[in-house]
């Protein structure tokens, strides 16, 4: 992901990360330890926010918005699917419109065309 950030940062790309411990307790560490691990291990230099819930009754408002405004929302049944796993990604434009939801298995290079299309506008 860092190469994509480096390539597109000057065009306005901003990556925001939100740790979550709702998936088999994978983020048990405190926030400082999570940030240090991400920085030291993966050279993360984008904002890493506080640990939050992305599903359930305590879902953070950012993820309520992302889920309700993506294809996780089924208009017919008026239901919103939960975030399936860590590393779920959303592409959001400068106006806050959710353009795309990416599954956790989507690799950063698979998002690059969408990023280039958005940033070229």
Largest sheet: 2 strands, antiparallel
- CATH homologous superfamily annotation: Glutaredoxin
> What is the β-strand count?
4
Cα distance, first to last residue?
A: 22 Å
Q: Quickly give the CATH architecture.
A: 3-Layer(aba) Sandwich
Overall tally of domains: 1
Fold-level CATH name: Glutaredoxin
Principal-axes shape call: globular
Oligomer: single chain
Point out poorly predicted stretches: none
Order of helices and strands: HHHEEEEH
What does this structure look like?
It is a single chain. The chain is α+β, with helices and mostly antiparallel strands. It has one domain: Glutaredoxin (3-Layer(aba) Sandwich), CATH 3.40.30. Helix content is 32%, strand content 11%. The protein contains four helices and four strands, in the order αααββββα. A hairpin with a 5-residue loop joins β3 and β4. The radius of gyration is 15 Å and the shape is globular. The mean pLDDT is 89.
List keywords for this structure.
alpha+beta; two-stranded antiparallel ribbon; globular; Glutaredoxin; about 120 residues
């Amino acid at each position: 992901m860092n190469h994509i950030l480096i390539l597109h940062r000057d065009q306005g790309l901003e990556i925001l990360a939100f740790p979550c411990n709702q998936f088999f307790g994978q983020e048990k560490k405190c926030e400082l330890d999570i940030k240090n691990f991400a920085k030291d291990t993966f050279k993360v230099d984008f904002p890493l926010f506080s640990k939050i819930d992305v599903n359930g009754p305590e879902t953070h408002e950012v993820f309520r918005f992302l889920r309700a405004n993506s294809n996780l929302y089924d208009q017919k049944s008026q239901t919103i699917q939960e975030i399936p796993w860590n590393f779920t990604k959303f592409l959001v434009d400068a106006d806050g419109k959710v353009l795309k939801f990416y599954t956790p298995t989507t690799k950063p290079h698979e998002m690059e065309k969408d990023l280039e299309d958005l940033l070229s506008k």
